[in-house]
Backbone:
């Protein structure tokens, strides 16, 4: 039930983000979701892509530092407080959320939320118990 996300460490310099995105485009890799977190010196570009192995190889060849992490992707109601109903599941059990980012698609009435949590296995079990709609990689590719 986990999906592999890649994280690209990027110097906070003009043109570096464009170079990373261009590297993926040249390899015909589709970006399904992305998030960027930055500091004054560097940023972390988090991506869900169509081909992790190919993306990692291309980015590393272009001089980027890349890491692959497990994330959980959940469809939540695209309405006020829709996300909080899912977050409450973790709050009740004291599971810490490391980060999340979200996107919407015209192919679903749900918001799609990518989450990284401290205790992934426990989080997945809780989501399953609450009948949450956990997406897999093939589900993301269909959006």
Residues:
């Amino acid at each position: 039930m986990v999906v592999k996300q890649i994280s690209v460490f990027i110097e906070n310099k003009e043109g570096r983000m464009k170079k990373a995105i261009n590297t993926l485009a040249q390899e015909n890799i589709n970006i399904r979701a992305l998030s960027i977190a930055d500091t004054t010196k560097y940023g972390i570009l988090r991506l869900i892509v169509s081909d992790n192995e190919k993306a990692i190889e291309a980015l590393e060849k272009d001089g980027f530092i890349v890491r692959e992490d497990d994330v959980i992707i959940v469809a939540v109601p695209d309405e006020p407080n829709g996300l909080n109903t899912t977050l409450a599941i973790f709050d009740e059990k004291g599971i810490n959320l490391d980060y999340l980012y979200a996107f919407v698609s015209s192919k679903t009435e749900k918001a799609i939320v990518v989450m990284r949590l401290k205790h992934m296995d426990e989080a997945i079990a809780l989501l399953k118990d609450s009948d949450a709609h956990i997406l897999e990689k093939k589900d993301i590719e269909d959006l």
About this structure: The two ends are 17 Å apart (CA to CA). The chain is about 35% helix and 40% strand. Helices lie at 16-26, 52-61, 82-93, 120-129, 137-141. Residues 78 and 110 are 5 Å apart (CA to CA).
